[in-house]
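Form 7-S
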Amino acid sequence: MIKLLNKISDNLLYLVCAVAAFSLLFPGPGSGLGWIVSPLLAFMVFNVSMTINYRDLLQVVKHPFVILWGVFLSFMVMAFFSLVIGKIFLPAFADLSTGQLLLGCLPADISAPLMVYLIGGDTALATAMLVIEMLLTPFVLPNVLTLFGGITLAVPTSYLMVELILIIIIPICIGVFLNSYAGEIGGKKDIWSGIASLCYIMLLFVVVSSNAQTILSLKGVAVIVLLMEISLNLFGYGLAYGTKIIFALEKELFSPLLFIVSTKEFGIAPAVVDIMKVNQAIVIPSTLYAVVQMISSPIMVKAVKRLNPE
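Output:
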């Protein structure tokens, strides 16, 4: 069993590509499993947290620059770039352009700490950065939308608080406690990262299957939006790599930025649409970005591990 979980973690990229292709071509099996997303996310966060102890979290306060810079890049720079490409490539599609700006303003995705762990980075720092961004979202999101787009959208505060408490905070607290005080359980890091990787694959299966029909129905427009999301994702990686070069960051500090900046918590966009009762097209950029980041993140893990094998 342990060997199987290790193989899942080591071959996450290939499994993700295979599952994404299958889900897009045969969406039926996974299209009705939307209800499982939240439990899977919580279980994934718990398993990643089993690789962290309380001493790791105490070290986070030593890196205020990385935390603040990550917040600035995620909420401001990514939002501005998202606004620009939306204006350039979607001038005739107001709702898609609005959805693109909304995407750029979103906090990091919950899967970011898992990717950081897989490349040997500071998982505790990535987890702390994720929590901070989620806490800031109700205050930052509406102001950035107004600043860059003159847009007023209701922030799904209740959704964010439920996600923060039930999917992030509680699983983290339980995982860190067990890893800190139940050594026999917490010491098996390969097992917990393998289970978290399996959760990631299952999430991809559900996300792609649930949105396959929408993606395929867009035809030519989908190609344009998809290229935009790839550009935004690559821009996020570029910001992290630029920071690494300018400030000579070691891998432990660079890797949290790499995935905190480049990923987006795409589930917030549907919550905004549900509250505001606005056009569902606003969700499309976030939906396509979800697919892009869930494939590109394992690719980046593979690339970083190959370039920095130590």
